[in-house]
């Protein structure tokens, strides 16, 4: 016995399709009064709905990235950009492990980082807003100690082209050619020794300290003030 299958043309927009089967093939679950079996299909989804969802997710991720950058900058002393073009995932993992706990590495689009630093002292980093950058947030005054792990990593992996693109320190921009200044800054211990030595030495030594570059002088004065505050607190607790 031959079965006849006919499909009626649905109206526009399509919502229902009708399948007509002989009564011999009909199940007892359906009403015998009609020879037609009607199956309803849901109307097709609007094509832009999934695009809207993806756009919303993308927007949320961008906002989260901007907030992450702002949060990292709260206790930041130096922000540096590293050209990471050609880095592998494994290299990123190794680099992160080599960094001190108070140094954060973040891969983020230049536009999102600039949105976070705009109209702040960190806006001086603007010349770095090109190319592929990984961002280094140094949250310690020991700048050379924080920068050294990347220099070591760069040398071991032979990544000469993946140099620092620039940095912002105390509202000033430092280009790649200026990093030697940042990498040779005196540590806290060296600053304290310099202060104590100047105070104990003849006046000419103190004058020499005061004639040092403004950057070093500021660090010396900050360290000396902190030393006095610590001594006062220590004396008050006795």
UniProtKB/TrEMBL annotation:
The keyword Ribosomal protein applies. InterPro entries: Ribosomal_uL10 (IPR001790), Ribosomal_uL10-like_sf (IPR043141), Ribosomal_uL10_bac (IPR022973), Ribosomal_uL10_bac_type (IPR047865). It is found in: Plastid, Chloroplast. Residues 1-20 are annotated as: Disordered. Keywords: Chloroplast, Plastid, Ribonucleoprotein, Ribosomal protein, RNA-binding, rRNA-binding, Transit peptide. One of its GO terms (molecular function) is rRNA binding. Pfam families: Ribosomal_L10. Signal peptide: none annotated. Its main location: plastid. GO terms for cellular component: chloroplast; ribonucleoprotein complex; ribosome. Transmembrane segments: none annotated. SUPFAM superfamilies: Ribosomal protein L10-like. Gene3D superfamilies: 3.30.70.1730, 6.10.250.290. Belongs to the universal ribosomal protein uL10 family. NCBIfam families: PRK00099.1-1 (NF000955). This is Large ribosomal subunit protein uL10c.
């Amino acid at each position: 016995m031959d079965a006849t299958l006919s499909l009626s043309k649905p109206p526009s927009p399509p919502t229902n399709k009708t399948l007509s089967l002989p009564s011999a093939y009909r199940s007892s679950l359906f009403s015998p009064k009609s020879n037609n079996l009607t199956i309803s299909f849901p109307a097709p989804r609007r094509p832009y709905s999934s695009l809207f969802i993806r756009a919303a997710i993308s927007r949320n991720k961008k906002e989260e990235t901007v907030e992450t950058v702002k949060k990292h900058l709260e206790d930041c002393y130096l922000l540096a950009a590293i050209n990471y073009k050609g880095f592998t995932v494994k290299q990123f993992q190794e680099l992160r492990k080599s960094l001190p706990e108070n140094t954060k590495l973040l891969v983020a689009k230049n536009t999102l980082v600039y949105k976070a630093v705009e109209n702040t002292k960190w806006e001086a980093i603007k010349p770095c807003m090109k190319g592929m950058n990984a961002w280094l947030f140094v949250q310690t005054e020991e700048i050379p100690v924080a920068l050294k792990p990347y220099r070591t990593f760069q040398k071991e992996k032979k990544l000469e082209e993946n140099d620092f693109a620039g940095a912002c320190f105390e509202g000033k921009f430092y280009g790649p050619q200026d990093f030697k200044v940042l990498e040779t800054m005196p540590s806290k211990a060296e600053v304290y020794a310099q202060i104590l030595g100047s105070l104990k030495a003849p006046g000419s030594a103190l004058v020499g300290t005061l004639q040092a570059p403004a950057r070093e002088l500021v660090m010396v004065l900050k360290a000396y003030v902190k030393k006095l505050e610590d001594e006062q607190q220590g004396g008050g607790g006795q």
